[in-house]
Amino acid sequence: MKNEYTAIIKKEDDWWVGCIEEVPGVNCQEKSYEELKETLEITLREALEFNRQDAITAAGNDYSEEKIKG
Q1: Which pLDDT tens digits describe the chain residue by residue (70 residues)?
Q2: Are the beta carbons of 1 and 65 closer than 8 angstroms?
Q3: Angstrom distance (rounded) from CA 46 to CA 65
């Protein structure tokens, strides 16, 4: 399953700033639009992996994983 996320991007003075709408905490700023998009993608992947590991740790030893479509 390939997920898509929505980046909210705008130019503020000399900076491009953005966040991922669906994942709180994924916020970035860069000097160029392309750098911002790349940084948002990297930060999103890191946040999703961190959240995944956090959920697995919190679940303990006896759990199952199920794919859910939203």
Answers
A1: 468 999 999 999 999 999 999 999 999 999 999 999 999 999 999 999 999 999 999 999 999 999 988 7
A2: no
A3: 20
Question: What pLDDT shows up at residue 36?
Answer: 98
**Residue showing tokens 């679940």:** 59
Tell me how far apart the alpha carbons of residues 3 and 52 are, in angstroms, rounded to a whole number: 15
**What is d(CA 6, CA 18) in angstroms, rounded to the nearest whole number?**
10
- Long-range contacts of residues 24-32, Cβ cutoff 8 Å, at least 24 apart: none
HSE-CB of 34 using CA atoms within 13 angstroms: 0
Q: Can you list the alpha helix ranges (DSSP code H) found in 1-70?
A: 33-59
Amino acid type, 23: V
